[in-house]
Write a structure and sequence with these properties.
The structure holds 2 protein chains of 2 kinds.
Chain A (H helix, E strand, L loop, with lengths): L1 H30 L6 H18 L4 H29 L4 H23 L15 E3 L2 E3 L1 H23 L1 H11 L1 H6 L4 H27 L5 H16 L4 H18 L8 H15 L14
Antiparallel strand pairs in A: 1-2
Chain B lengths: L1 H31 L7 H17 L4 H22 L5 H21 L1 H4 L12 E2 L2 E2 L3 H24 L1 H18 L4 H27 L9 H14 L4 H13 L11 H22 L12
Antiparallel strand pairs in B: 1-2
The chains are: A mainly alpha, B mainly alpha.
């Protein structure tokens, strides 16, 4: 059944986008600017993982947490060295977005310089042996992929809703100035948002590296679709970003039914544009304070 | 050797002039009128594709070039129409989205654009019975066009109309209270900006004689923004100086013994570093008169 195959492909693509978009939205909510270089963090994660696993021959159980730690540190570093000084100058969100495009260019090219432009492959699992569900083909890795994504998104939601740090983040997101007057160290909270958001990008990078292979442009390419998903669902809403991402994944894959496959990404962009015009805050996003 | 060097220098100078036109045109919208536009690179691409396709279909060069500018300008008009309610972050995201949409059209409308294969064999400019075959003549030609554009922009920005555009940037509310049509001024500024970017696209296409979608994407967007911001917003002189510095500086890498595959990535890294450093240390750039909002 082609329908179920497209559904599964859409869910896999959606999971990738949702993982990236959730970290992106996490950072956006607390910091209120578009950290477009988040995609490059994903690429960096994939190459960290490749380096630790293939070059240094580390076992998987060590390579995974190390990759996530390194990626979280990379996110913290960009916030500390570039975004924070810019914020202290009272730079607008637009300047921070331009700076993030600069960071993206730097990281993507740096990775290409170190590892070359060619595709790298991590052959860890036998991708051949798959299952057939309702006539659709799915590999065990893909099942693990989708499950981990859903579990992580649930954990992230619980964290935001119930943990102390999560609540503080919400306070800073709602009103940074008010949060400051109540004694919350908002800069610290923003640091944490980069650590957690980039950590999720680390996990995303590992999963994508296992599922799709590595290329210096991989993260930025995925970021474009994830960004679309986040905007459609509402950048400042975690649930919205996740639903938007799955929507983009499904639409891109079901789109091939009535359009040539080359238009896969065009579908998402057109949707992005329509939403930015009609409903810039997205499906679930808050209107308050986001359009300034 | 000497000959080779002068051929190389001519090539670099042509590229410098084309990017100066791009930075000047971005400066009109971003610097003078205060319109954030991360879709400028799409206008560059629209001009390149339109001009190349028209010319190869038999339309004379001058008309193809103007056609490129006009199509870009029309899309500039569309962009202002559909984004007129957006501000700040969301406007930035929408214009970035515009770059994505156009890029994916260049990439996917294969019947017209040949997709990722690109369009080879774009003829050199030919007009009034003259054909530009050698690069030196082409250099003279692009310098003439760039001077014309500079003079037009100089005239506009110094005129009362130019002050109105600056009014859009500094105090749009006050301007509309005076009965000026702010939306119209914005769209005129962006249309003109897009027109010149389209002309730059046409010059690029007919000079390189080959275009593909990758030229008109995020990589080049960074270069154009770096030049404009380093030169300074609201300063035409700044865009010119920065264009010369920013394009020529990474060329020095060629004189170090590096493999050519590394030079390309190093060049991009240098642009990115310059952009970030200028934002951090001197956001007004070399000659800027205003801060980037």
């Amino acid at each position: 059944m082609i329908f179920f195959q497209l559904l599964i492909n859409g869910l896999i693509a959606g999971s990738i986008y949702a993982l990236i978009a959730s970290g992106f939205s996490f950072i956006y909510t607390t910091n209120r600017f578009v950290h477009f270089a988040h995609g490059s963090t994903v690429t960096a994660a994939a190459y960290f993982f490749y380096y630790l696993l293939i070059y240094l021959n580390l076992p998987l159980w060590l390579a995974i947490p190390l990759t996530i730690t390194l990626t979280a540190l990379l996110g913290l570093l960009t916030h500390f060295t570039i975004y924070l000084p810019l914020k202290k100058r009272k730079s607008s969100g637009v300047i921070l977005l331009i700076a993030s495009l600069g960071i993206m260019t730097f990281v993507d090219n740096f990775i290409q310089m170190l590892f070359g432009p060619d595709v790298k492959i991590i052959n860890l699992f036998n991708k051949g042996a798959g299952l057939t569900i309702l006539g659709a083909y799915i590999t065990p890795l893909q099942i693990i992929f989708i499950s981990i994504t859903l579990l992580l998104l649930l954990a992230l939601w619980l964290f935001k809703k119930y943990s102390q740090l999560g609540k503080l983040m919400q306070a800073v997101a709602d009103n940074p100035d008010l949060a400051k007057t109540t004694g919350i160290n908002s800069i610290n909270i923003q640091h944490w948002s980069f650590v957690i958001g980039s950590g999720i990008a680390g996990l995303a990078g590992i999963l994508i590296a296992l599922e799709n292979n590595l290329e210096p442009t991989m993260g930025t390419t995925q970021m474009v679709s994830s960004f679309t998903g986040a905007v459609i669902g509402g950048v400042n809403s975690l649930i919205g970003s996740v639903i938007g991402s799955y929507l983009v994944g499904l639409l891109e894959n079901f789109g091939v039914w009535f359009l040539p496959s080359g238009y896969k990404s065009a579908i998402a962009f057109v949707l992005l544009f329509i939403f930015l015009i009609i409903r810039p805050q997205g499906i679930f996003g808050l209107k308050k304070g986001t359009r300034e | 050797m000497n000959n080779m060097f002068s051929a190389y220098l001519t090539h670099i100078l042509i590229i410098v002039v084309i990017y100066i036109i791009l930075a000047l045109s971005l400066n009109l919208a971003l610097g003078f009128t205060g319109l954030i536009n991360l879709g400028h690179v799409a206008f560059f691409g629209l001009g390149a594709y339109t001009s190349a396709l028209l010319n190869m279909a038999g339309v004379p060069f001058i008309l193809s070039m103007l056609g490129g500018g006009m199509v870009a300008s029309f899309f500039g008009f569309l962009l202002t129409k559909i984004t007129k309610k957006l501000k700040g972050d969301y406007l930035a995201m929408a214009t970035l989205g515009f770059s994505f949409v156009l890029y994916s059209i260049f990439l996917n409308w294969t019947n017209l654009t040949h997709g990722p294969m690109g369009i080879p064999g774009i003829p050199k400019p030919k007009f009034f019975g003259l054909a530009i075959h050698d690069n030196f003549t082409f250099l003279i030609f692009v310098i003439i066009i760039a001077c014309l554009i500079y003079l037009i922009l100089k005239k506009i920005t110094n005129s009362p109309y130019g002050k109105l555009l600056e009014g859009v940037r500094d105090d749009a509310l006050g301007l509309s209270a005076l009965g000026k049509n702010v939306a119209k001024l914005k769209s005129q500024s962006l249309m003109l900006s897009a027109f010149f970017a389209g002309i730059a696209g046409s010059l690029f296409a007919h000079y390189i004689s080959y275009i593909d979608p990758s030229t008109f994407y995020l990589t080049d967007l960074i270069v154009i923004f770096t030049i404009t911001i380093v030169g300074g917003l609201g300063s035409l002189k700044g865009s010119i100086w920065a264009g010369i510095i920013i394009i020529i500086l990474p060329e020095l890498l060629r004189f170090i013994d590096l493999p050519s595959s590394i030079i390309g990535t190093m060049r991009q890294m240098i642009y990115a570093v310059i952009l970030i450093i200028i934002l951090l240390l001197k956001p007004r750039g070399l000659f800027g008169r205003i801060d980037l909002e």
